[in-house]
Design brief:
Elements: H1 3-19, H2 25-33, H3 41-65, H4 71-88, H5 91-105, H6 109-140
Length: 150
């Protein structure tokens, strides 16, 4: 596949992230901070997010195993995870975090457990999509990224 065609394919994949609601404006803002002096800035930030979020998810897993559930602790942990997700523009993850917190506020244990599975599913889906996107981007080389999707 020629380089221009690969760039178009990468741009199409990137656009799909926004069209399908996986990413929001915050991701574009990260891209705008990327430049020639730090060409992998966005990938590095996303990699740090995934490294740090493993700790949040572990803590949430542990808190969901305790009886009785400590809804304040669960809410606090999810609030932190939501903030971290927001920092990279993980729109679907952030939405599921909001849903989880609503179940915490209602002290709905089953709702928390069910929604936590949704959080993890969206988190894993986005991680796989972004890993493939960054891998393809590295193979092709630099492309102008900081533009609003149409």
């Amino acid at each position: 596949m020629e380089r221009n065609q690969m760039h178009r394919q990468i741009a199409s994949i990137r656009k799909s992230f926004f069209d399908q609601g996986y990413l929001d404006e915050q991701f574009i803002q990260l891209e705008e901070l990327q430049d020639n002096s730090n060409p992998n800035f966005v990938e590095e930030v996303v990699t740090l997010f995934y490294r740090d979020s493993a700790r949040f998810l572990y803590n949430l897993d542990q808190a969901l195993e305790k009886r009785p559930l400590d809804f304040n602790k669960l809410d606090s942990l999810m609030h932190q995870f939501k903030g971290s997700s927001s920092s990279i523009g993980a729109k679907k993850v952030k939405t599921e975090c909001t849903n989880f917190r609503a179940h915490c506020n209602a002290q709905n244990a089953e709702g928390c457990k069910r929604t936590y599975q949704h959080v993890k599913r969206e988190y894993t889906t986005l991680k796989k999509k972004l890993e493939a996107y960054f891998q393809m981007s590295r193979q092709v080389g630099p492309i102008e990224m900081a533009c609003r999707p149409r």
